[in-house]
Amino acid sequence: MPETYVVGFDGSAQARRAVDYAMARAKSSGAQIHLVHVIEWSPYSFHTPEELAERHGRREQELDRAKAITQPVVDELAAAGLSASCEARHGNAAELLCKIATDKKADQLIIGRSGDSVFSQRLLGGLAITLAQVSPLPLTIVP
Question: Which domains does the chain have, with CATH numbers?
Fold first, then answer.
């Protein structure tokens, strides 16, 4: 059975470098690549019922936008002869990446070091540190 690489992908240049790294490795190993776009979402935020209804309505729109970011990369990988898939989920990035990697019986988790925006850099910088501590499988952080 071929290896599987789970790659965290948010559309940033750093995430693209993680995809390129995974692609180069997959070309030599025949591994499958699974892109994961996580939209940070906390169920513990306190909002009015109206705000919650609006927020839940935006969830589907956010998932559609995430799919629009990841699907072209999956198509590119497939055109290069690689087996690739993607998914977008709401939740805590570290928890979801670990869960998805475990569920897919992945051999490696690959992420970029940080995102483009200050918010993303804080989020993904924290994500890299968190995953380095809790990842249930080998983790590659691509600079």
Answer: 4-142 (3.40.50.620)
